[in-house]
Write a structure and sequence with these properties.
The protein is mostly helical and about 170 residues long. Helix content is about 85%, strand content about 0%. The protein has 3 helices and no strands. The longest helix is centred in the middle third of the chain and has 73 residues, at about 25-95.
């Protein structure tokens, strides 16, 4: 023979307990159930916040990778631009009859190379700095997520302690 089990909501079960027992005991049971539910919700909330924080951290790490790659591309573009400018200058010197193998043209080219290398290094350093800030923010997000879980357990313990205190003050 099949037994019929009817699903009931939490509120229906509390009302049923209230009908069967005296009011004081019913309120005690309801309070204990609600403190247990509140504890569970606190823990779930902490894990949900951690999930969001971890997603934010992953997004920030990807952003850091993009920032570093963009800086590298910008440094390469600057190097290519420098090579084109150097080629134009060399052609201009040669067209005007200047010997480019000695003297002032070599000094100009060396100074240009030096400044270009500094520019490329600066671009890379700025990209690395920006990426480092994003990675640091990612680490902070991960820490926030862990703290949210810990806080969730703390709130859960408080809810359970509150419910347990009701047992100690139960009317006789």
């Amino acid at each position: 023979m099949k037994s019929k089990i009817k699903k009931r909501s939490l509120w229906e079960l509390i009302r049923l307990v209230c009908k069967i027992t005296d009011f004081g005991f019913s309120m005690l049971v309801a309070s204990l159930v609600m403190s247990t539910v509140a504890a569970g919700m606190s823990v779930m909330q902490g894990y949900q916040q951690q999930k969001i924080a971890n997603a934010n951290a992953a997004r920030l790490r990807m952003q850091a990778d993009r920032e570093k790659a963009a800086a590298e591309r910008n440094a390469q573009i600057a190097a290519q631009r420098r090579k084109r400018e150097r080629g134009r200058a060399t052609v201009a010197f040669a067209a005007s009859g200047v010997d480019i193998s000695q003297g002032s043209p070599l000094i100009v080219e060396a100074e240009d190379d030096y400044q270009s290398e500094i520019n490329e290094a600066t671009i890379r350093a700025q990209g690395a700095d920006t990426a480092w800030r994003s990675r640091s923010q990612a680490a902070i997000e991960v820490a926030k997520g862990s703290a949210a879980v810990t806080a969730g357990y703390g709130r859960a313990a408080g809810s359970l302690a509150s419910g347990a205190s009701l047992l100690a003050t139960k009317p006789k």
